[in-house]
């Protein structure tokens, strides 16, 4: 009875929480439940659309392009390799467009609203054309054109949705909860398609018949385009930045800054060397398509399989809170190895194989949540070390691994053709060939899972470190708003509360872990042991928090470091000059810098910095003479803000607004690019002057703001 009573109480509390915070968030949360639902419904729409676009992926297991249209596995891989090279240019264009997007609707939502339409139209036109009956060369060229076009556009539809999840809240714990809830909602889409699409496909001749794609898959995608609008118009983006922050990211500069991010490298290398982990993903569907040929049973088991993802997504926030990102990832990959190994010995027994496939699907689905959380944290860390918010630029930076991707991409298609699977997949109807093939795919997946796991033993970005990184970013936003004269009381309270929390942790006495461990061993009763273990856990957590606080304290005290003092020494005389004084620079600047003493490490570091600054000064002088031969006129940044505020309710107004934005941006970019060393020096000097009084002033203002409600309550 107590279980039922507790369950009822929990359900009532959940209902009260949802209804009470349907339109306004509660506590430290930033996102109301209505917005979470909109995110999930849009996610369902994304899944419905990708049900269609997934069949245009250039992978050798593709039943539309491979077995239905009849393109050979090696030709599919060759097309994939060509696209991979072309994607260098596509990724640069996408990252430059998206990362520099500034609209009243945010950075990602405009693309979420629009880009699903051309993708679905292009795919539908291809499917309804008589492609299977065309001569092989013609359908090869047509397939290449359509698949590459869809692959070029799709990231601006799918990746913008994924990126929106990473900025829907700056609170890491709330963000993981939102991603988990969202995953549960949008996973209903693949559950529904997994149940009904195979059944409907059986009526149209199965997955090797073009009519299945025409009359089942395309209508599902059309529904998805409509549902996607819930996210486009019902969600917000909450990037931690100052009010007047204007994204200005250049491709080469952005990539070079990302290459300094060790956590990005670990995640990227893991993907490179773990390419074979997904090789066994086709086995479950192929058992039914080429083995039992029982599409009804396939649909039912596929629906049951979908529940594994739902359970995993529901469990993910609790597991993340208990284990953290890194430990959960290590557990997931370790279990992945165990379950795929079990699948290796059970693929001949369908239902036993299904059990291990279900368990493997469960642990793999955890990554849908923690990967998004980790991706968001890595981007926040990138903003912390570079000072610029980058999203799509990560994809462009990833192109450095193109040779690795091209090489490893040949492995699975080569295995397919080695096993006899070319244009005619009917060979898989032979149980001997099919079972041997399944064994090879399982072995490849085991090897991929092992190699994928290795880099994450070196991953160190914990929840506590990320929390202090966000606090540092909030402090920078407060700093900029204070300097720009647009600081709000809400920003002060939110930022200073985080800073005070960190300093309270630092000021707390360091716990004696050895004493806590002795207390656990010496405890006699159950209650005493429980209290001792709790104290030990709290002591360990406090030490972790103290260690992570450095990310915030380094930001607050950065002008006190010898390195920053050295930079200020060089910045002050440069910042004191007028723009016209920079038109010429004597060569003696570089000569004098190279003549500086270099006996100690500090002197070597100082001389190296002096030489780099002298070279920048000389390059800047040459750039000024080229860009401003008739005199220097600094652009007015208010022109850009005025252009952004222009109406766009008609086509003419929209074009006028875009034209004004481009003109203002062009002037600003030329000026900032040409005078970058000078502007950086002025910014550094200005920030140092502000930093002397900012924190004491903000602490005093924070106490006033937090004391006011208490005073009002006491008077009442």
Automatic annotation (TrEMBL):
InterPro entries: MFS_trans_sf. Keywords: Membrane, Transmembrane, Transmembrane helix. SUPFAM superfamilies: MFS general substrate transporter. It holds the Pfam family MFS_2. It comes from the Bacteria. The chain crosses the membrane at residues 78-98, 110-129, 141-158, 179-201, 213-235, 269-292, 298-320, 327-345, 351-371, 392-416, 436-461. This is MFS transporter. Gene3D superfamilies: MFS general substrate transporter like domains. It comes from Candidatus Fimenecus excrementigallinarum.
């Amino acid at each position: 009875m107590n279980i039922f009573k507790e369950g009822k109480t929990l359900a009532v509390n959940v209902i009260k929480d949802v209804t009470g915070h349907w339109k306004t968030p509660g506590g430290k949360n930033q996102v109301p439940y209505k917005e979470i639902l909109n995110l999930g419904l849009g996610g369902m729409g994304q899944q419905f659309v990708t049900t269609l676009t997934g069949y245009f992926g250039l992978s050798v297991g593709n039943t539309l392009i491979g077995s239905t249209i009849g393109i050979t596995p090696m030709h599919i891989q060759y097309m994939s390799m060509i696209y991979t090279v072309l994607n260098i240019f596509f990724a640069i264009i996408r990252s430059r467009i998206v990362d520099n997007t500034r609209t009243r609707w945010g950075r990602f939502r405009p693309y979420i609203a629009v880009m699903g339409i051309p993708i679905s139209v292009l795919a539908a036109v291809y499917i309804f054309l008589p492609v299977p009956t065309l001569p092989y060369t013609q359908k090869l060229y047509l397939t290449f054109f359509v698949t590459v076009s869809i692959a070029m556009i799709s990231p601006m539809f799918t990746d913008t949705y994924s990126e929106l999840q990473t900025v829907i809240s700056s609170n890491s714990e709330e963000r993981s909860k939102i991603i988990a809830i969202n995953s549960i909602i949008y996973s209903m889409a693949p559950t529904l398609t997994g149940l009904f699409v195979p059944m409907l496909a059986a009526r149209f001749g199965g997955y090797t018949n073009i009519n299945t794609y025409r009359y089942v898959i395309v209508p599902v995608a059309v529904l998805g385009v409509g549902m996607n609008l819930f996210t486009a118009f019902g969600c917000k983006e909450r990037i931690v930045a100052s009010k007047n922050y204007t994204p200005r990211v250049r491709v080469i500069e952005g990539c070079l800054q990302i290459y300094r991010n060790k956590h990005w490298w670990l995640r990227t290398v893991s993907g490179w060397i773990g390419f074979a982990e997904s090789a066994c993903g086709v086995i479950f569907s192929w058992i039914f398509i080429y083995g039992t040929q029982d599409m009804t049973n396939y649909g039912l088991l596929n629906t049951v399989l979908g529940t594994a993802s739902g359970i995993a997504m529901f469990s993910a926030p609790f597991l993340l809170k208990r284990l953290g990102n890194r430990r959960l990832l290590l557990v997931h990959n370790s279990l992945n190895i165990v379950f795929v190994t079990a699948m290796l010995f059970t693929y001949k027994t369908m239902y036993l194989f299904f059990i291990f496939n279900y368990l493997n699907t469960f642990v793999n689905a955890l990554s849908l949540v923690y990967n998004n959380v980790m991706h968001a944290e890595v981007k926040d860390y990138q903003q912390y070390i570079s000072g610029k918010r980058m999203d799509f630029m990560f994809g462009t930076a990833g192109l450095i691994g193109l040779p690795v991707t091209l090489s490893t991409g040949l492995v699975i298609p080569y295995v397919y053709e080695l096993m006899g699977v070319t244009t005619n997949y009917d060979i898989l109807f032979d149980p001997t060939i099919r079972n041997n093939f399944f064994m090879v795919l399982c072995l490849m997946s085991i090897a991929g899972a092992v190699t994928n796991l290795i880099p994450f033993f070196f991953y160190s970005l914990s929840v506590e470190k990320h929390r202090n990184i966000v606090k540092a970013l909030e402090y920078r936003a407060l700093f900029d708003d204070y300097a720009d004269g647009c600081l709000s009381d809400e920003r002060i309270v939110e930022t200073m509360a985080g800073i005070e929390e960190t300093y309270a942790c630092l000021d707390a006495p360091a716990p004696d872990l050895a004493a806590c461990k002795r207390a656990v061993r010496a405890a006699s009763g159950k209650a005493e042991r429980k209290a001792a273990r709790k104290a030990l856990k709290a002591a360990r957590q406090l030490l972790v928090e103290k260690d992570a606080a450095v990310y915030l304290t380094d930001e607050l005290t950065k002008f006190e470091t010898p390195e920053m003092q050295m930079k200020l020494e060089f910045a002050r005389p440069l910042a004191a000059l007028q723009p016209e004084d920079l038109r010429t620079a004597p060569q003696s600047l570089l000569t004098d810098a190279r003549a500086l003493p270099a006996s100690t490490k500090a002197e070597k570091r100082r001389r190296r910095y002096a030489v780099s600054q002298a070279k920048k000064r000389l390059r800047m002088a040459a750039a000024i003479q080229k860009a401003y031969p008739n005199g220097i006129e600094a652009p007015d940044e208010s022109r850009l803000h005025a252009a952004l505020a222009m109406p766009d309710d008609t086509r003419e107004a929209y074009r006028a607004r875009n034209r004004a934005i481009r003109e203002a941006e062009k002037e600003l970019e030329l000026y900032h690019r040409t005078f970058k060393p000078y502007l950086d020096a002025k910014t550094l000097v200005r920030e140092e002057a502000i930093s002397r009084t900012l924190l004491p002033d903000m602490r005093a203002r924070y106490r006033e703001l937090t004391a006011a409600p208490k005073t009002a309550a006491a008077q009442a």
